[in-house]
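User: My collaborator and I are trying to settle a disagreement about how two of our proteins should look. Neither of us wants to argue from intuition anymore, so we agreed to look at predicted structures for both before our next call. Could you fold the first one, then the second, and keep them clearly separated?

Assistant: That sounds like a sensible way to settle it. I'll keep them separate. The first protein:
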Amino acid sequence: MLRKGQPETAGLLYDGTASMAPLQHICQMLYDSGFGTALRESDNAFSVVESVHVLSITLTVGTIVVLDLRMLGLVLRSIALTRLARSVFPLALSGFGISLVSGFLLFWAEAAKMYTNPAFRVKMVLLVLAGLNPLIFHTTVYRRVQEWEAKNISPWRARAAAVSSIALWSGVIVAGRAIAYFR
């Protein structure tokens, strides 16, 4: 319940005390900052950053899905997986870096709202899982890629990693889009 003279910001009770959870407090500070307010209230800046974020995610996920589809044997079978990975990895990494920066800027502008947004939380969990998937893949089945990359069908663990990757990145995109519906 709000006390007289106490502001309510983004649906969060902000009483200026340390009674807030530490992460909630940081989110509220980002939201209340001059930069966060300026970005959020700008006629164009927020839309430009959001567009850059969407385009960079498209670049990231598009290149990753090409590799996943290759591992599933559905596209580019004549190209060795390692050669394809060397070609698209810089694009995926660039897209991810841009989406990380633009995503943080979007978060900064609306941090207090994102703290309670269930779709945002789901997106963050899926992003962590999407990051763990290639880490596990590269430390296990990919170590023996020279033995199987020339075959039309990858080992079942490589195919499982590819299906997991496509599902996780699809979930990230859907959850990211759903953020707007929980504001």
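The second protein, kept apart from the first:
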Amino acid sequence: MRTRRFVKEGGKYQEVGPGDDKHTCAQTLLCFGLLLVIGAVIGFLIVVFQTGSCKYNIQPYKANTPIRTIAFGSCARDDLSIFNEINADVIVFLGDNVYADTGSPTSLQAIYDRLSCKPEFQDLVNRTRHVLSIWDDHDYGYNDVGADNPIKNESKSIFSEFWKIPDERRLKAGVYGSYVFNMSNGTTVSIIMPDLRFFREPLQLCEHCEYAEKCYCPTNRSLLGDVQWAWLEDAVNRSQRSDALTIIASSTQFGHAANGYESWTNFPRDRARLRALLDPRKSLVISGDVHWGEISVLDGLVDVTSSGFSEVDLNVLPNANRLGNAVPQRNYGLIDLENRTVSIYGVGHVRLLSVNV
């Protein structure tokens, strides 16, 4: 059956016959062709301007160089304008430094390349004397992934090259490592960066969740693995003997109360083991991941969470270990080594939270 079509001419609707459709079909084909051309041009421009890495300057690490301030934070996706406000001797990227969420090394590399071309990123790393980085799930592979990441070795190679990781970290499995700096009073500070992804055994799903459809329960499985544990215990013991301050840079939260989301609370044996190593009078944990900032205290040990550089979650979860209020806005952390204070700053360099360590 032929479809009847009508067009409005002179205030009245007139039926369009088969012969009258020819010019309409020709116009449609022309418009379709133009759309194809425009789409191809846009695609070409995207390829030209968004692929390929850009130059940026991450200076090689030199042990025992003097520092006064350490900035830190996590979760950087799109609006990185807060980078323009960060001014410190050291910056520690705590993970989710990009949001790749991919099993493709090619896609992961392209997303890192895109970060390298952002002016705010280039400016920050070019003017910061020491740039340190650890990964979390979204820049390691995909959401909540651990040792089962099928591209973990390729991901390590891309991560190490992008962040100019020293050979000492490249020559072993995972990306864990530690750095020692001098403070103005002649004492030292260590920044110890465990890898919470490469060796992490599977999470334990809960049957009932309070805050989400999917959540995780405590398990006796390992977060770090035996080899990394041996390294971490040695690094912490050496630092506690000689350094004035030991900083554990953790990609997920350490000191908060369990809420079912991914963190050290899912691995209570590992958390208790590290807590026993750390002297609260000489130690500090900095962490990321959750898309809000807060300060938690676990048996006297302070954990300052800075998240995110660009990502914000207004649905802040309860935390019985929280000191003061949470910060559900873009933020970064700053450690003042001379005054022994750790603060969380929001947009406009407004100090929102602070604690002495």
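Some points you might bring to the call about the second protein. The mean pLDDT is 90. The helical segments are 22-50, 105-116, 119-127, 137-140, 152-162, 167-170, 226-242, 268-277.
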